[in-house]
Amino acid sequence: MAYEATGILIVDKGTQQVSEKFRKREFVVEIQDGQYPQVVKFELAQDKCDLLNGFQLQTPVTVSFDLRGRAYDKNGETLYFTTLSAWKVQNANGGGGQQAPQQGGYQQPQAQQAPRANNNPNIQRQPTSAPINSDADNDLPF
Are 88 and 98 in contact (CB under 8 A)? Predict the structure, then answer.
C-alpha cells in the first residue's frame, strides 16, 4: 500500500548495518494533525538508505512509503509488527528530493475502487492504493 506524508524531519538515526547483507536507516518526521502533532518513524532499507543524505534536521519533507506488516511466532504467542517503509524522500518546499531507482519484478496492482477522502492534509493516500476503512468502526480511545 502506497502512502505519502508531509512534515518536519526531526530525527535521523543514521545507517545501521544489521547483518552482512542488510542495512537500514530509521528517521522520524513530525506531522501536524490538528491540535496534537504526530511523531512518526519511517525506515529506509538497503540502497534506499542514501535517500536521506543531504537533508538537514528541521527540514520540511514529503515521504512516500508503503505500509508493511508481519506476524512472528515466539514461544507459542503471535506478535505483530508494522513498518512504514519509505521509498522516496523529497523536500516539501519543492527541491532536493531523491527517489530510489525502481526495482524490477514487482509492481503494485491498480486499485479497483477510488480512494476515500482523508481529512488530514499531511497524510494522503496515493491513487494506486486500496481505500482506508472509516474511523466510524474504530473503538480505540485515542
Answer: yes
The DSSP bridge partners found for residue 98 are: 89
How far is it, in rounded angstroms, from Cα 136 to Cα 133?
Answer: 8
pTM of this prediction exceeds 0.70:
no
**pLDDT (tens digit, 9 = 90+) per residue, 5-40?**
999 999 999 888 989 899 999 999 999 988 889 999
Cα separation, 89 vs 71, in Å, equals 27
Dihedral angle of Cα 54, 58, 63, 66, to the nearest 10 degrees:
110
Q: Which residue's C-alpha cell is 496492482?
A: 109
| Alpha-carbon span 112 to 51, nearest angstrom | 31
Distance CA 54, CA 47 (A): 15
Which residues are registered as beta bridge partners of 88? 64, 99
Spatial distance between the Cα atoms of 139 and 104, rounded to a whole number of angstroms = 40
